[in-house]
Amino acid sequence: MNLFFRQVLAIYRKDLLAEWRGKEMISSMLVFGLLVIVVFSFAFEPDTEETARLMPGLLWIAMGFAAILGLNRSFSGELRLGALQGLLLAPMDRSAIYLGKLCGNLTFMLLADGVLLVCFAVLYNFSVLPVLWKLLVVVFLGTAGFAIVGTLFSAVALNTRMSEVLLPILQLPITVPLMIAAIEATAALSNPSRTADYSGWLQMLAAFDIIFFVLCLWLFEFVIEE
Amino acid sequence: MGQKSWMAAMGGGALLLVMLAALYSTFLWVPTERTMGHVQRIFYFHMPSAVIASLAFFVVFVSGIGYLLSRKSFWDRLALSSAEIGLTFITITLITGPIWARPVWGIWWTWDARLTTTLILGLIYLSYLMLRACVIDKERRATLAAVVGIVGFIDVPLVFFSIRWFRTQHPQPVLMGGQGSGLAPEMRLNLLLCVIAFLVLFAWLLRLRYRLETLSEEVESIRQGVLVSRGES
Question: What's the rounded Cα separation, in Å, for the pair B149 and B79?
């Protein structure tokens, strides 16, 4: 296998292992996301009609906020015992670090999304099964975009004062188009009269992902330098 | 007076002249709009402010690329100055807009594509300035700010198109718009004059803010020098 991909894989495995042993990211994401879902039930009358109307936005707010919580921890583990220095001293391209981190973040976020989606479907009586595959595509593309931007910004926010506050402040305005597209694509699935919009919003999601993937891959090497 | 201060005085004079001309022509010369009345005149400040804000954020974007490629602090000072001015002008846009919208649309605000994009644009550069305030090391701050400045600018068209698909109410662009759009010749002339006045103002402010940043960096390095020499004695 290509050396570059082996390096990416090595960082990915390291992150998976660290998360498996600590379970810091995934547990905070799950508990927080679940709390958002529960607290929202007080904001409106959770009957079928209201739920169908508000469901897409609610789902993505829960998943997005949970993701930010997880992203905050993405690089904080590297600060301990000079782990980041070790990572930077390793003889490899900086983009390999970005890709490895991105894969790790995306995995944890998707896991959390899956659990949140199940909880959501049960608690709000939302039938996921008929549109499951299409919904999973939306969830994947939306979460990927969030992880692509978030991995870069969590590296930016690292080593700043108030880094935990700075990440959402940077992340949320930039991901507005992503959130709109993800929410609208989900709405197209849950509302039969809007099914036609689905593929358009999916293209928007894909465009966002591709543009920012290229951009963040290039910019990451500047961010992570000493 | 040296050559520089002569040029500054000339620039200041030009700014004063063009601003007075713009004020005169907006309030006394240009005809009143038939249906909207006097409130339409705010357009001559609203639209140029939006133009200047976009220009300022474009300067931040270019400076970001310039800094990452050259590592010259010139680009960073330019980016900071331009971002602050851009945020000021976008705030003017966001304030003058509702003042016009209230009597004409009957509401202060609507979540239309251009309004929302402008608001998000303001928020992006607000977060840009917050990031700058949170990084102490100068070179690190310049690099991180450059990265966020680039990402933020690339994001703007995406924000606009996503919200445009979503909903829209803002009047069609009056210049280079579709059929039925357009301004009376006097109004177009007045608008042009206002845009020029704001451009000169932008250049003037940018120069001042850039100088202020240069001076405060000098003061900081002198202060550091004094602290170091005190520590040695």
Answer: 8
